[in-house]
Design a protein that fits this description.
Residues 10-355 form the DhaK domain. With 592 residues, this protein is of the alpha/beta class. The chain contains 21 helices and 14 strands. A hairpin with a 4-residue loop joins β1 and β2 (37-40). α8 crosses α9, α17 runs antiparallel to α18 and α18 runs parallel beside α21.
Length: 592
Amino acid sequence: MSAAKHYLTDPTHAVLSSLRSLTLTNPSLLLDTPNKIVYRNPSSLSQPHNVSVVCGGGSGHEPGFAGFVGDGLLTACVAGTIFASPGAEQVRTCLQHRLPPESKGVLVIATNYTGDVLNFGMGVEKARALGKKVEMVVVGDDVGVGRAKGGKVGRRGLSGTALVVKICGALAERGVGLEDCARVGRLVVHNLVSLGASLSRVHVPGHGIEEAREEEERLGPGLVEIGMGIHNEPGCEKVKTDLPGLVKIMLSQMLDQSDKNRAYVRMVKTDETVLLINNFGGVSNLELGAITAEVTTQLENKYELKPRRIISGTLFGSLDGPGFIVSVLRLADTGLGTGKSLLDLIDAPVNAIGWPRCVTGDTWEKTYKPAPEKTEEEEDETEPSNLKLDPTSLRKALEPALNKLIAAEAEVTRYDSVVGDGDCGLGLKRGAEAVLRVLPSLSSHDAMMTFAKIVPTVEQNMDGTSGALYAIFLNSLASNVRSQDSSSPTPVTTEIWAKALAMSIEGLGKYTPAQPGDRTLMDALAPFVDVLKKTGNVQKAAEAAKEGADKTKGMKASLGRSVYVGGTGFEEVPDPGAHGLSIFLTGIAGAL
């Protein structure tokens, strides 16, 4: 139950410490600790008479919304405890005492949850009763619940709220009046659709292990919940599907006009849009990038919508939730003229911790040349040589050796799981399978042309440290074989191979300090080359490689990931890289 492990177990302390951190990372901010209000230092305001923009809600949605306090976004944020709305008195205190008195009005933005609407609404009414000019925009952008289930409550507020804050904050920064700020805020809400999905529910700091286990069991293994809310609220359905299938369902619920229960915003292919991919907080950047690519591709291919802007990151989180929200905004006309379109306002600069650093509007609008197509002239040309290598004989030597290496994948992986990260076997298998696919195409008797096909194949299909070492070594081997070229056709003899191999091992020393005895693939490679050079006998050289690999069992590593793994696993298994190489070399010797 790793989701139940936290660095802080007191949720109150976690919230207050997090709010305080904003004043440390942005010195222009102040914190009213008792009321959990983050607000801009009055001395930092260059235009204190502009409309003040206030947002807030329960904590746990960081960076929203306290992280959005700053130039071009919010003037202040009122925070509640985790997943709970701030009280009306907190809101009133903010509106009455934490905003510049010169402000020509206050725009309050709240998400459409009962507690937020009631408490912010009460605070607004109290401020109005005291003479403040205040407008309130309630954001409901979720389509997951649907009209039938949502009833009078309406749509829940999701990550689209961040876009409303961005646009209204930019308007206020430009000196636009309160009525227009509120009107445009509502315009954004009416043109906004969002939907979330998650692999699991979140765990709140301070809650017990059993509660976390119950949350996990509610969803079940292998399922993703579509329509899940940002406070662990159940979604509209649970499905078992891959990412393309999930995105297809989500976009259908958001954009299918035949779904009268969820067709809140009509979007056609001529509409300009902004796409926001919001991380709940627990999705890796790697996967978030893949999600962004999948959503963008399906939007363009199925709905013919090519977003003018794409924003991806964590803006409106849900603690450590392994989910994401897709928001699509239709760029409606604000009616405010040049420089105040929704796109202009999205592009407007901000100075706040929580807003992602996006590329500029100028970068988006510039016309770029398409990527040049690869031409034959761009292909790396290999100079022919007089060194001759029979492709049929080479295939007969390599095929069985590569097949043995592929068959040993599980064994090598098991060894690497004990002393490394478990990827060595798969890496060797990928490389071997790729070379096998190339072998039938080998037709030239020129050894350099053979190298020109095999070496890039290894480079492209083997990654990690071992992949880099093999690529360096094979490139060096090709160079050192070529160095023995002559003016007349010459077969590549065992003597040529041995000399080139020895030179390549020496060259490898420029890039790695690995030597026999360090528990690496060098423990198999070095003895093979040494014996081959001395005897010219491939079988004896392969036996030396196997003996060297076997000796790594019990050998303590001096290099590689095994150094960090620790434990006593090295006493039980040989080095996976050396073992895999010895299997390959033994396979070649057997074939010859």
